[in-house]
Amino acid sequence: IPLGNATLGELPSEVGVPAYDRSALTPGIVHFGVGGFHRAHEAMYLDALLNEGKALDWAIVGVGTMPGDARMRDAMKAQDCLFTLVLKHPDGSREARVIGGMVDYLFAPDDPQAVLERLADPSTRIVSLTVTEGGYHVNQVTGEFDPDSPDLQADLAGDAPPKSVFGFITEAARMRRERGIPPFTVMSCDNLPGNGHIAEKMITAFAELKDPELAEHLRQDVAFPNCMVDRITPVTQQADIDDLAERFGVADRWPVVCEPFTQWVLEDNFGAGRPAFEEVGVQIVPDVVPYELMKLRLLNASHQALCYLGYLSGYRYAHEVCEDPLFVKFLLGYMENEGSPTLPEVPGVDLDAYRHQLIERFANPEVRDTLARLCAESSDRIPKWLVPVIQENLRNGREIDRSALVVASWARYAEGVDEQGDPIDVVDRFKDKVMAAAAAQQDDDLAFLRDKDFFGNLVDDERFTTAYRGFLASLHKRGARATLEELEGR
Length: 490
Ligand code: NAD
Hints:
By secondary structure, the chain is an alpha/beta fold.
């Protein structure tokens, strides 16, 4: 059955459908970057509220600015902006529900003026974003705004309609001010620590180049809440589309698939109201930082703890590693004894339950997260997620052994050859320097640690280097699995 307003009543009863009258919805949110994640997360939370008969004036208008978004326009237009969200349970079962809270989709290159008018309309009170890290134009070296992209340059150069997200937001903010309409809130839902702060900093820096007074208005009058978001949402594959048709009889051009787990911790900083998201499981908090640290130091750091050692042990998927009791013991050991002690109080969270839930999520065989993905861009990850944990534990005389083994496993992996002698494809924007340092370990076993950009002064800490050296030697001599067995058997 092709998905659309007209066929909602014909779908099989096991497929959830909107319990609300879609024709009664009015827009309140404009969302840039309608991809997998937005549809599995914010749109799902709004749909849950709508199903309770609430937030009917907060429907979503999706906007795409990139050439590739024409595909999403075609899919959404063909099915009245409806799409199916499919949860992949670890036992192989699927849960499907049609999400109905998106009422329009605008492909900006078709009609930029329509996007501006939608943004400037008084009913638009939130502009939300999932435009990937690249969408914020942060210079990776300086952390400052980088106006070099062609779209930004075009938007800065003339008075033509905007092309970039930043161009649309700033021009719409200007129009609203001119028309005496209160500003909207800009809510970033991208996976960046301090995402609200980053959005504010980068968007105002862009505005500054166009109109300093407008930049001041953004700084003074526009709210940019921070939030922590979590739900593994892989790219939709043709197999997912086929599976939805076979299992549920729904012909959806672009469904979205994800794990059952979902989390959204949102700072209560909105200038023009918001849906009552707390009624559908969103944690609304005054400060997101403890939750971000929890995610970075437990979830993200654990991914690092499992990927290199898992790969060297011959695994290729995260779930394979997390079905192995030796690895589970190691990961829980890291989280309990090294990651968690560095966290501030995380209000309302049972850390022990969170740690076990992470293992369960990683072990979901349906998600099929590859170790290759987790092993990529290590030089962006270990220094941000694990090194602060090590430094803090060294300062406080706490355990560092498992973290030292994780760093050593990266150093071993970066040699580019696995334990069977087969090549490893090291993917890292600093690949050359990382691999050169790993190669130099033959003569100097601390060579890898000497990079102060990545590791600060760890190389000067004897307690750390003693542990690290021992593990690196063991990885070379005995291999990853035997090294883990020895550590966890003690
Ligand atoms: P996706 O590729 O499905 O969608 C990304 C959307 O952003 C597309 O519409 C794309 O056109 C748009 N986009 C990309 N670069 C842009 C730019 N420079 N300017 C404007 N629009 C741009 O990806 P996704 O899975 O939806 O993930 C998007 C973001 O969501 C991630 O980068 C991450 O920050 C966050 N997130 C994703 C997951 C996940 O598991 N997928 C989990 C948590 C958070």
